[in-house]
Amino acid sequence: MKISKVACFALFSLLTLQGYTQDLTAKLVDSKTGQGIPYATIRFDTNSGIITNEEGLFSLRWSAIPENQDSLYISCMGYEKLAISIQRISDSIIKISPKAIDLDEVFLFDREMEVEDIIEQVIERLPYNYNKQPVKQRMFFRQSSLNNLNKFEIDFKKSTIAELNEKFLDSVTGLIPRSSAYYTESLCDFYRTPEEHKLYIEKAAELYDKNNEGSMDALSEKMERIFRENVKPNSYLKIKSGIFGTKMELDSVFDAEDEEAKESEPVVEKEEKHYFLSNRKSAIHNIYASLFFNDESKLNFLEKPNRYNFSLKGYTSIDDAGVYIISFAPKRSEDFQGTIYVNIDDYAVVRLEYENVKSLRRIRLLGLSYEEQLYRGTTLFARGSNGKYELRFLEKIIGNQMGVRRPLKVIEKNKYVKGRRKQNELSMELDISNYNREKYELVVFQNNLISNEEFQGTVENESIKATYLSRYDPEFWKGYDIMEPNEAIRSFSASTEKNP
């Protein structure tokens, strides 16, 4: 039986459309080295697009592309701009060629400027270049919290409670996880004015190992049981570390725990949900507050330019606009080095790369230590419909080292017992060292200016609750615009073994 050409064409068209109904995950790579290209922009039009992650991965949702759009436009600083037909996107690898950047490339200027003059113009234009109107931003926000307990040693000295012995303390050190990871992902609308901000979360996920929580809960219950069985009525605990001490009434502690256990489940759940929204909103607000042009920023290279050396490295183009490439480094004792990319026409910083050159803060006092060791990031800005710039993408990594090396005594006392009133005592030496690393990734898909009335009429969904995932599930975000996770998140899986 022969099949007509019309039927063949219809069948081919149907198969093609079925292929386009599926989302595509692809990787953008350097055509010469094969390495993934991070933070490249893939645009459908002038107002919409996505960004590759640190490995060059991105997800493409066909339904988000306008019907009359036949091409995607890929751009990244240092690479040739690529227009690729949507019909040609069938491979999971897309290659882009490096662009030979000539530092002496000709740009048209009214007058040639020294780097000091450029920085002066950047500072002068700061109040005008960045948006201060009410705005609604569609964004995807990911926070990765990685914790490593480098040292946890307890040197047992003395205990008058039989169960609180050296063997028990050794078992405590075995229960505490040496490393843990906690990831949150949120697709949300962030409403912002210079004075206020609101958040509406459409969908969210939490990725972590609940077994770590279980071990700590079991330890807490065991400690409570031991104290209940061994301390006498009307006793209190005096906790001493060196010359410092504090008093804790046991009855009030136990009563509070009992009262908390009696609370109904719906009330607890409501508090947890409200906490998730407020926590995410606070984290996003802090990111905006720490941008280089705000008062709360640690990045002071423009606030105190006389303390930095600036060097004009050359010129390039970002989003078809010419930019200066300017590096900065501390003259003496300042904290940061990096590179800024300054628009030639309006002197806006459109890209910023920075890292600390020394610890930002170091505290050592009476056996306690804290050190801010890492503060590094990349920030991209895009011009909006009102000619002002808004945040387009941010990656920020913060690393802190904390330590405790002190003696610790827990003494039970009772005011109704004669003498020195000492009933029980636990004495030990603590040596603890912990490193915490926080990574923030924020992608803004859309910036829409709104009125003050629309902002005031926005209602937050305080009842939102993140979906718990014990392992990465690529289906969870299917059909949504996100930033692809890195390998650490894709390979994460909670342990299946039960803790003792």
TrEMBL record:
Record keyword Protease present: yes
A Pfam family this chain is assigned to: CarbopepD_reg_2
InterPro entries linked: CarboxyPept-like_regulatory (IPR008969)
A GO term, aspect molecular function: carboxypeptidase activity
Key words of the record: Carboxypeptidase, Hydrolase, Protease
Name of the protein in its database record: Carboxypeptidase-like regulatory domain-containing protein
